[in-house]
Design a protein that fits this description.
This protein is of the alpha+beta class and 91 residues long. The chain has helices spanning 13-30, 51-61; strands at residues 38-45, 68-73, 83-89. The chain has one domain (13-89): 60s Ribosomal Protein L30, Chain: A, CATH 3.30.1330.40. The chain has two helices and three strands, in the order αβαββ.
């Protein structure tokens, strides 16, 4: 979802993953942190068929020392998005 318009990103899992991670990066920056401070993520996908697409983008953002991660398939997500990522970060 675009934070300024609250519109869901059009496209598939790749585009939505990129937007989710950009949103996460912005939230972390406001707190004086970065993606390197993320220690755990939980990824929710509406289809595990999208795992490889999501993972390609995810690896671009967490290329070194990636956080612990769990990935789950769920029946649906709010606003019919394909990807949602929850993150835990520490100072």
């Amino acid at each position: 979802m675009k934070p300024d318009t609250r519109e869901v990103i059009t496209g598939g899992a790749s585009e939505q993953t990129r937007q989710v991670l950009e949103n996460l990066k912005a939230v972390l920056e406001k707190a004086g942190l970065g993606l390197e401070n993320v220690v755990k993520t939980t990824i929710y996908l509406t289809s595990m068929d999208d795992f490889n697409l999501m993972n390609e983008i995810y690896e671009q953002y967490f290329s070194s020392n990636p956080p612990a991660r769990a990935t789950l398939e769920v029946a649906s997500l709010p606003k019919n998005v394909k990807v949602e990522i929850e993150a835990i970060a520490c100072y």
